[in-house]
Amino acid sequence: MNLPDKVTICEVGLRDGLQNEKRLFTLQEKLALLNSVVKSGIKIIEVGSFVNPKAVPAMADTDELAKLMPKSSGIEYRALVANLRGVQRAHECGISKTKLTVSASEAHCLSNLNKLPAEIIHGFKDCVEYAQKQSLQLSGAISTAFGCPFQGKVPALQVENVVKEFLNLGITELSLSDTTGMANPKQVYNLCTMLKTKYPQVRWILHFHNTRGMALANIFAGMQAGITTYDGSFAGLGGCPFAPGASGNVATEDIVHMLDEMGIETNIDLLDVIETAKLAQSFAGRITESFILKAGRCQDLVK
Amino acid sequence: MNLPDKVTICEVGLRDGLQNEKRLFTLQEKLALLNSVVKSGIKIIEVGSFVNPKAVPAMADTDELAKLMPKSSGIEYRALVANLRGVQRAHECGISKTKLTVSASEAHCLSNLNKLPAEIIHGFKDCVEYAQKQSLQLSGAISTAFGCPFQGKVPALQVENVVKEFLNLGITELSLSDTTGMANPKQVYNLCTMLKTKYPQVRWILHFHNTRGMALANIFAGMQAGITTYDGSFAGLGGCPFAPGASGNVATEDIVHMLDEMGIETNIDLLDVIETAKLAQSFAGRITESFILKAGRCQDLVK
Predict the structure, then answer these.
(1) Record: contact A217-B217, CB cut-off 8 A
(2) Is this prediction's pTM over 0.95?
(3) Are A186 and B3 a contacting pair at CB < 8 A?
(4) What does the DSSP assignment read for B251-286?
C-alpha cells in the first residue's frame, strides 16, 4: 500500500469553519484561535476571505485580522477571493497567497453566475496580471469537484477542464473541494490518480467535508493516490448549508489523530490542535462534530 | 486498487446496538426492527446474545425474539454466546449459528477473567463437541483486535495466536472487532492482509465502531485487503462504554450508502435500511450517530 511518510495540514477553520457558523466570532476570538493554530505547528492557515461583506458577514473583518497575524517565519497565510478586488485587499493587508475559487460543476456555475467554469476562470486574468506585478502567489480552488447539488456526480472530465484552465493561467497549486460531502473514496482515488499522473507539475490539496461520514476514508484514499496536503477545520466547525444539522468540514484534530495513529508525520502537536478545537467549540457555544473532542485520543483510553 | 465487486453486510443492531442503549427495547420493538431488517435484504442478522440476563438485561428476551423470527430461507440468524449454556439456549430456540467471543488483548482477558485468551478458547471445547453432535455452526469473535483500553495497541501476534486457537478447534469463521474504536486504516490493511494471506481457509468478518471517525476508512482498508463481510448497526445504535457520548457502532446505512456510491453490490435496498434506522432511532428516542439519517443520501441532495 502506497502511503506518504509525511502529510501537510492546512487549517481552514477561520474561513470555511466560521463562514458557516451562525454566531459571528469577534476579532479577538479569531485572533485567539489563530494564535492557537500557530502554536500547534500548523504552517498553512487560511485566515478568511475577501468577498462582499454583505454576502458573508462572518468574513467582514478579515483585513483587520490579517493585520494582527503573528509574523512567524515559515507560516503561509492564505485567503479566499472571488476577483481582483479580493486579491488587492489581501495584498494591502499583507496576505501574499490568495485562492481563486470556481465550481467544477457546469450546472452550478451556470445556475449561480450564468457562466461556464472556463469563462469564470478567464475572468481571473486580471488577478494573474496583478499578482505577477506584485509578486503575489495565486492558488486555485475547485469546489464541488466530486458532487454537486445541481447535477449530482461531477464527471472527471469537467474537473480536468477546470484544471487545464487554471494551468493556462499559470496557477499550479490547486485544491479539490468536496463542498457538499458527496465524494467517496473510490472516486477520490480514481480522480486524484488520474490528475496527479497527468498533471505532475500541480501541487494538489484536498478539502473534504464529513457530511456523510466518508471524509477520513477520502483522505486515506487521497494519500494512496499520492496527495499529501489536506485541509481541516478546528473542531469540525462549519456545516452544510444544503443539509442543516449535518456535519461540515472534517475536523483538523480528527485528521491529525488518524495520521498520528498511522505513523504519518505532520509536525503538528495533536494536544495543541485539541486545545484549539476546544477553544473553537467554546466560542461556537455548541457541541461540534469532532470525534476526538467527544471520544479522546486512542491513547487517552489506555488505563 | 483492489476492491471487491460485492460485499456482505451483517446487521448487529439487535445485539451490539441494543445492549449499549440505556433504554430497554420491548420485544415488539425488536420484532419490528427484525422484520424491517429482513425486508431490506440483509441476509445475516445477529438477533441477540445468550448470556447472563442480570449482566446484560437488554438481551434477556433473546429466546423469545428468536422464536418469533421470520423463517425466510436464505437468512442466517446468529447470536453471541459466552459458553456451552449459551450454545444450548440458542439451539433450543432455533438459532443454528452462535458466535463465541474472546478478547485478543491478553491484558483485557487477564483483567476480566484472570485467564489468557488461549485458555478461554480451550474452554470452548465443550461448545464444539455439542455443536458437532447437533449440527450447529460456530463462529469466533475476536474483540479488541486492534486496540484495548488495558494495553493500548494490540500486537498482530496476539491476534494471530487467538486465530490459531480458534482454528485448532475447527472454527473457521472469525470476526475481528474494533470494540473501542481504536483501529486505523493502515493497521486494518496490514493486519487483514497478513491474516488473509496466512489463513485463506477463514471466512473473515470485520466489525468497526466509529468512535474516532475512522470506521468507513477502516472498511475501505479492509476491502482493499480482500475482506468482503462487515458488521453494521442500524442508526449507529450502541455507544462506547469507555467514552460516554461518543459514537458507537458504525451505522449500517452509512456503510451501505458508501458502498452504493462506490458501485459495490450489497443486494440490500438502502431506502429500506434507512427506514429501519429511522425506526430504531424513534424507539431509542434520541438522535443517533448516523450520517445518512442526518444528511440524506448524496442523491437526495440533487435538485
Answers:
(1) yes
(2) yes
(3) yes
(4) BHHHHHHHHHHHT-B----HHHHHHHHHHHHHHHTS
- Say if residue A199 is exposed, middle or buried (CB neighbours under 10 Å; 0-12, 13-18, 19+): middle
What's the angle, vertex CA A206, arms to CA A238 and CA A121, rounded to 5? 95
What are the tens digits of pLDDT across the range A94-125? 998 999 999 999 988 998 889 999 999 999 99
A236 grid coordinates: 469540525
Mean pLDDT of B123-142: 97
List Cα–Cα distances, A257 to A16, A231, A270, A288, A293, in angstroms: 21, 14, 7, 17, 11
Interface test with B, best of A2, A110, A214 (most B CBs within 10 A): A214
pLDDT at B23: 92
Q: How many CA atoms lie within 13 A of A38 on its CB side?
A: 17
Question: How many angstroms separate the CA of residue A79 from the nearest CA in chain B?
Answer: 28
The H-or-E segment that residue A49 falls in is strand A44-50
**pLDDT tens digit string along A22-80?**
899 999 999 999 999 999 999 999 999 999 999 899 999 999 999 999 988 899 999 99
List the domains of chain B with CATH numbers.
8-301 (3.20.20.70)
Rg (CA), chain A: 18
- Continuous segment of H or E residues that includes residue B49: strand B44-50
What percent of chain B stands above pLDDT 90? 89
C-beta of residue B212 within 8 angstroms of C-beta of residue B188: no
Look at A246 and B212 and tell me if their CB atoms are within 8 Å: no
**C-beta neighbour count of A208 within 10 angstroms:** 27
What pLDDT, in 10s, does the model give residues A131-154?
999 999 999 999 999 999 998 999
Q: What is the mean pLDDT of chain A?
A: 95
DSSP H helical ranges for B84-155: 84-92, 106-113, 117-122, 125-134
Beta carbon pairs, A and B, within 8 Å: 148
* A210 CB within 8 Å of a chain B CB: yes
pLDDT digits (tens, 9 = 90+) for A2-35: 999 999 999 999 999 999 888 999 999 999 999 9
Q: Which of A298, A300, A303 to mutate to test the interface with B (most CBs of B within 10 A)?
A: A298
Burial classification of residue A133, based on how many CB atoms lie within 10 Å of its CB (0-12 exposed, 13-18 middle, 19 or more buried): exposed
> How does the average pLDDT of chain B come out, rounded?
95
Name chain A contacts of B186, Cβ cutoff 8 Å: 1, 3, 261-263
Q: A147 is written with which cell numbers?
A: 458532487
Closest-approach residue (CA) in chain A for B298: A182
As given in the structure block, the three cell numbers for residue A240 are 452544510
| Residue B20 pLDDT exceeds 90 | no
User: Which carries the bigger pLDDT value, residue B25 or residue B113?
Assistant: B25
- Residue A189 pLDDT class (50, 70, 90 cuts): very high
- What pLDDT band is residue A302 in, cutting at 50, 70 and 90? confident
SS3 B136: coil
- Distance, in Å, from the CA atom of B261 to the CA atom of B259, rounded to the nearest integer, reads 5
